[in-house]
Specification:
CATH architecture of the largest domain: 3-Layer(bba) Sandwich
Largest sheet: 9 strands, mixed
Mean pLDDT: 95
Oligomer: single chain
Radius of gyration: 21 Å
Number of helices: 9
Helix content: 10-25%
Order of helices and strands: EHEEHEEHEHEEHEEEEEHEEHEEEHEEEH
Distance between the termini: 38 Å
Low-confidence stretches: 377-389
Strand content: 25-35%
CATH class of the largest domain: Alpha Beta
Structural class: alpha+beta
CATH superfamily of the largest domain: FAD/NAD(P)-binding domain
Number of domains: 2
Shape: globular
Length: 389
Amino acid sequence: MRSILIIGAGLFGLTAALELRRRQWRVHMLETGTVPRPTAASTDVSKVVRADYGGDELYTALGEASITGWHAWNRQWPQPLYHEDGFLVLRRDTMAAGGFEHDSFDLLTRRGFPLRRLDTAAVKETFPAWAAEKYPAGYFNPRAGWAESGKVIARLASEAQSAGVELQTDTGFARLLEDGSRIVGAMTPDGTPLRADCVLVAAGAWTPTLLPPLRDAMWATAQPVLHFKVNDAAQWQAPRFPVWAADISRTGWYGFPALADGTLKIANHGPGKRVAPDAPRVIWPGVETQFREFMSGTFPSIADAPLISSHTCHYCDTFDGHFWIDHDPQRPGLAVAAGDSGHAFKFAPMLGGLIADVVERKPNPFASRFAWRQLAASAAAAKDGARAI
């Protein structure tokens, strides 16, 4: 039986572990903390699920297949963790060719998505929380929504262990074990050697720290997430208030319907800040003011809503915004599945098969985009912010 040691039990690691176990691999996982790890990017109350990716055919197809997968998981699991409340995409001016909103609308319509085009009047009538006059163009996509991300991770971990995956928590990683140029396992901090036919590093924001040769290709980036309290939760839930993006390719603003207790999550994918992966998950000065200025102009009735909590989400950003899923060409026996770049969670149902195919060197229609590539921290190659929700 082939064996694999997976470093990291987040989204990439757990989905890969489940699929490889189904393919009869012996799977051993190491996780520094608990699962779900509180500081992991995949651990939160919600993540967006969508296929809206501008004119990008590959991500759109991957997103569409993933939505089918989310429905399959809902049928299998004791309670549904994916909520297809739809995705409201609005823009502060007209939708023109080349823009995220226009190109998403065009491509998804051609693929059969039943989108509804919106203008100011339609926004005002259907989504009354919005300052509709400031968002004169956009669309609503009913085949999208959000997932209870932390609960999804807990569910995947439970399924992995039930399937026979050996999940070792509160156990760190000291170094790789080498036999010449080949990687043959890893050493834990207490000196225990763990040998395997393949080592897969899927450590999220910690990946470039564990694998220093990748530090010019990926890094940890902090992005702010704030939770506010609304009094009438039903008024801030679908269908009146679904998952949304507010001129996101230019502003980075996005958010979610309220939870049953009135918690309303708003986030921004902007430049962020490069940080150490273990840096405190605290927002920097001025962030709350920026959020409230946005809310005042977009959702004026909650501009003064109480702030419940705030934190930063630490992405593992790659220099070009694409995931990094491949074998290390210089070190046989070592593979990497990382580089979420703030937009991986929506693809959870497809990631396990994708990573497993790469590990087994089998063809996969999506793998080429995420293959090992030249290491370059190039500002000119920075990712499109509209993608990273």
